[in-house]
Amino acid sequence: AFSGPRIFMLCFLFRQYLKIDCGFIFQTRMLNFKMFTTFTW
Hints:
Strand content: under 5%
Number of strands: 0
Number of domains: 1
Number of helices: 2
Structural class: mainly alpha
Distance between the termini: 14 Å
């Protein structure tokens, strides 16, 4: 799935285009990443 540079790339893209905080992404990823990805995409 997402690991290493890829998650940071997503973090950057989210901050640039969706204005979502990187901390929110990592926190949600720990809690329920599958639900987050389903909701996002």
